Amino acid sequence: MKALNLRLLFKKMLISNDMNPNHTSPETATFKTFTDRNAPEELRYLEQLILYRLSAWFPSDENTAKPVLEVNKWSAPLSGYIEKHILSGDEAVLLLIGLAPHLQSDLFDRVIGSKLQNSGDFQRIGGVRGKDFRGFLPTGETALFLLGGDDYEKRLAIQELFWADHLFDKNKVLWLDDRSYGEPAMSGKIIISPEYLDTFIYGKTIPPRFSMSFPAKLIHTDLNWEDLVINEELKEQINELKSWLKYNDQLVAEWGMGDRLRKGYRTLLYGPSGTGKTFTAGLLGKEVGKDVYRIDLSMVVSKYIGETEKNLELLFARAEDKGWILFFDEADALFGKRTNVRDAHDKYANQEVSYLLQRIEDYNGMVILATNMKNNIDDAFIRRFNSILKFSVPEANERAEIWRLAFPEEVSFCNGQEEEVDVPELVKSYALSGGCIVNVVHYASIKALERSRAHKGKKTIYLADVLYGIKKELLKEGKPFS
C-alpha cells in the first residue's frame, strides 16, 4: 500500500508539472522560473539578476549565483543595437531593465514577490505603479540596485548613464521621467522612446501616431514630379535638395567629412499659398524613401514659459538619427523676428527664437520651413539656411499645364452651346496658384457629375462652371473677376 501511495503521489507530481509551463526540474535548473514560456534569453538573464540581488537581503536555499552576461544570445534587434553602438554591459542591462515591462508586464512583480512574500515593501529596489498600468515599473533606483547592489561607488557610476551627455539622453533612447520637485533624482521611472522600443522588439521603427507628445503628421503623396509644374530655375534648386538627401550620409561616412561639415540641412520655401511648397516636401521624401512629418505648430507653441522649447526638444529628439524630414508650415508663427525687449513676454519670446535657432542647427536631418512671407522670418535663421527657394504664382503657359493635369482623364469640355472648347487654354490668363486651380477643378467636376445623366455618363466639364469657380477663388483673395 505504501509503494502504491508513493506511485500515486509521483503521478500527481508529473501531472502538476505538465500543467505548469514554468516548471523546472532539479536536473535543468536550481530555482523556479518566472518568465513566460519561450521568453527571450534576455528576460531569463534579468530574472536571474533580480533573484541574485534580492538573495543578499532575503537568503534562501536556492542557488542564486550572479548570472553570466551573454548579450550575443539576446534577441537580434536588441543585441544588434548594443553591438552597433559598442555599449558596455551596464548600458546593455539598463536598456533591458527599461524594456522588460513592455516584454513581460508581470516579470518584476513575480520575481520580487517570490522573495518578499512576508517581508512587505522593499524600498531599495525602487519602482512605481503606473496610472493605468498595475504592474511594477522600474525607476532609476531599480537600475542602481540591480547594477550596483550595495557598492556605493558603483551606484554613483551607474547614475552617469542617465546624464544629459550620455548617448541614451542625447538621442532620446532612454531617460528618467520627471519627478516632483525636491524628490531624489533617481526616483523617476525609466522611459524608453516609443521608436526605440519598436526597434528593440520588432527590429524596425513603427511610424509614430499623431498626439500631444508627437504633434506631427506624415505627408504622403501618390503623385510624381511630373505633376509639379514649376519653372526650370526652381527645378534645379530642388535637385540640390535631392542630392543632399541621397549622398550626404555617404559623404560623411565614406569621405570622413563629418567633423568639417555642419549637421543637417536647412531650407526655406517661400511664396503664396497653393504654389507647391508642401507638395514638394512630400515628393522629396518619396524620392529618397524618407518620412516627411508636417509639424502642427498649434500644438507646439505654448503661452507658458518654457513649454514651447520643451515640446520642440522632444520632437527633435525623437526625430534624431531617424532620417526624417521635418516640415514646418507657416513657419513665421514660430521662427518670427525677435523684437525689442519691452517686458518679460518679449524676453521669453526672444529666448524661444534663440533656442530654435540652435536646435535646428543641431538636428542631423533635413528641416524645411515654409512661409507665405519671407520677410517675417528672423534674419538669424535666413543666414543659416543652406538654400532659399522661391515659389511664385505660375506663368500663363504653366497654368495651362496645371489645368490639364488637374482635370480627370478622358474629360471633354464644352461651352453653353454644347460646342467643344479648350478650357485650359481659355482660362490660363487668370492668375491663380496651383492650389486654387485644383479647387476650381474640384467644383467644376462635381457640377459635371450633377449633369452626367443628361450626357449619358460622359465626363463633360462646362466652361461656365470653371469660370464661376475661378470667380469664387479670386473673390476669396480680394481680387476682381472679369
Automatic annotation (TrEMBL):
Residues 263-395 form the AAA+ ATPase domain. Keywords: ATP-binding, Nucleotide-binding. InterPro entries: 26S_Proteasome_ATPase, AAA+_ATPase, ATPase_AAA_core, P-loop_NTPase. GO terms for molecular function: ATP binding; ATP hydrolysis activity. SUPFAM superfamilies: P-loop containing nucleoside triphosphate hydrolases. Belongs to the AAA ATPase family. This is ATPase family associated with various cellular activities (AAA). It comes from Pedobacter caeni.
